């Protein structure tokens, strides 16, 4: 029975080198592998986006973007956050004013994310902003009377924005604008306000008419005083009246007769005198 000689150290080294070369050739070209690796590592975020990278579940660093960034496969993951302004409609709700009047109010809120790292901590930013706007709306309207609400929409909008700024900053959200869309009153309140407005208009009309009559009476009084002080003015007014009457095609013209003349005529008629009337 023949026995085989064990391989020499030189033979073992040559065999190891051959195996390594074989494994490298099985993997393919190293440049191709590196290119494929870069493809799976690189991502692009838009100008209006930011990418928050998590490494093994923890936020790695500040938000990435805009542009190209790299992550490690199987170790990193990322979440894109939109930084554009979002419109949020606040559904109509009934609120109670300071003077115990129930009104139905709806509004619209404009907000945007300014800190993507803080924003990813919120489950639903849109829902949270809507609920915050509803509670703020009830609080602000509860401190205003109905007349203040109807006459100061701009002031209420500013107060709501300031009230929402502090809690929304913690979320990484900036409230840009709050606008009241509509304030609806109960029907009986609308009727009473319409009646009150109508009464106010009638009162103002009566005041204007009374003021006009007062001015007219004052003007007549001043004119009578002027005529009383100047007999020539009375005669001029008499002639002006005759001229006005003659311009019209009237068949009957009435001439005013002095009272003293009528008294003389009456005396002569009673005495039965045939004497001539004095001129």
From TrEMBL:
It comes from Heterodera schachtii. Residues 11-25 have a biased composition (Low complexity). Transmembrane segments: none annotated. Residues 1-27 are annotated as: Disordered. GO terms for cellular component: cytoplasmic side of plasma membrane. Belongs to the band 7/mec-2 family. This is Band 7 domain-containing protein. Residues 40-197 form the Band domain. InterPro entries: Band-7_stomatin-like, Band_7, Band_7/SPFH_dom_sf, Stomatin_HflK_fam. PANTHER family: AT06885P-RELATED, BAND 7 PROTEIN-RELATED.
């Amino acid at each position: 029975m023949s026995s085989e000689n064990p391989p020499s150290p030189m033979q073992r080294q040559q065999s190891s080198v051959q195996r390594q070369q074989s494994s490298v050739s099985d993997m393919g070209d190293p440049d191709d592998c590196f290119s494929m690796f870069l493809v799976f590592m690189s991502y692009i975020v838009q100008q209006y986006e930011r990418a928050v990278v998590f490494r093994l579940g923890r936020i790695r660093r500040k938000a990435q973007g805009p542009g190209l960034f790299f992550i490690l496969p199987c170790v990193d993951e990322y979440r894109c956050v939109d930084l554009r302004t979002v419109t949020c409609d606040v559904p109509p709700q009934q609120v109670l004013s300071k003077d115990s009047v129930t009104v139905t109010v709806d509004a619209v809120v404009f907000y945007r994310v300014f800190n993507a790292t803080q924003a990813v901590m919120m489950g639903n930013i849109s829902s949270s902003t809507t609920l915050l706007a509803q509670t703020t709306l009830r609080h602000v309207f509860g401190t205003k009377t109905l007349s203040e609400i109807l006459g100061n929409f701009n002031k209420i909008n500013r107060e709501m924005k300031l009230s929402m700024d502090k809690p929304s900053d913690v979320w990484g959200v900036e409230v840009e604008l709050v606008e009241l869309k509509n304030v609806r009153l109960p029907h009986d309140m609308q009727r009473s306000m319409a009646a009150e407005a109508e009464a106010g208009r009638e009162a103002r009309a009566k005041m204007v008419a009374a003021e006009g009559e007062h001015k007219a009476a004052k003007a007549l009084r001043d004119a009578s005083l002027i005529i009383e002080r100047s007999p020539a003015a009375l005669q001029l007014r008499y002639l002006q009246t005759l001229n006005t009457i003659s311009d019209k095609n009237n068949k009957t013209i009435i001439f005013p007769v002095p009272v003293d003349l009528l008294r003389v005529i009456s005396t002569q008629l009673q005495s039965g005198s045939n004497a001539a009337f004095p001129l």
